[in-house]
Amino acid sequence: MRLAGFTDRTASESLGRHVKRLADCTAMREPLPADLAAWIEDLPGRLRDALAKFNLLAGARIAAGKPLPEHLADFAAPGRGGFERQRTRPSAATGPDLTSWPSTMRITT
């Protein structure tokens, strides 16, 4: 795995240490230590995307770093069902029609 570092050697070495810790935690399926999780949240988007490409970051962690306007744009995208209102009537496949529930319910003792 090759990952572009920084122009500063110390910063690149630090990046290498963090990525190694991340790879070790991922390989052993261990939760990330708090300091490593905080480091990931502060990463630039391009670096976070590169780590995801190598399967070192889960999709949820990538989404956590995405700005809210981007999440809203994804949610409102056509075909995603975000702000589109569902106008179908319930069927046997989707469940009972509860709009008539009080009038059709019978209580027997």
Q: What's the layout of helices and strands?
A:
Blueprint: H1 9-27, H2 34-41, H3 45-53, H4 59-64, H5 68-76, H6 101-104
In a nutshell, what does this entry contain?
By secondary structure, the chain is an all-alpha fold. It has helices at residues 9-27, 34-41, 45-53, 59-64, 68-76, 101-104.
Describe this structure in words.
- The structure is a single chain.
- With 109 residues, this protein is mostly helical.
- It has a domain at 9-76.
- Helix content is 50%, strand content 0%.
- It has helices at 9-27, 34-41, 45-53, 59-64, 68-76, 101-104.
- The longest helix has 19 residues, at 9-27.
- It starts with 8 loop residues before the first helix and ends in a 5-residue tail after the last helix.
- The mean pLDDT is 74.
Distance between the termini: 71 Å
Average pLDDT, all residues: 74
DSSP summary, beta strand count: 0
Number of helices: 6
Proportion in β-strands? under 5%
Elements, N to C (H/E): HHHHHH
Unreliable stretches (pLDDT < 50, length at least 5) are: none
Derived structural class: mainly alpha
Largest sheet: none
Helix share, percent: 40-55%
What value does the Rg take, in angstroms?
24 Å
Q: Which term fits the overall shape? A: globular
Key traits:
109 residues; mainly alpha; globular
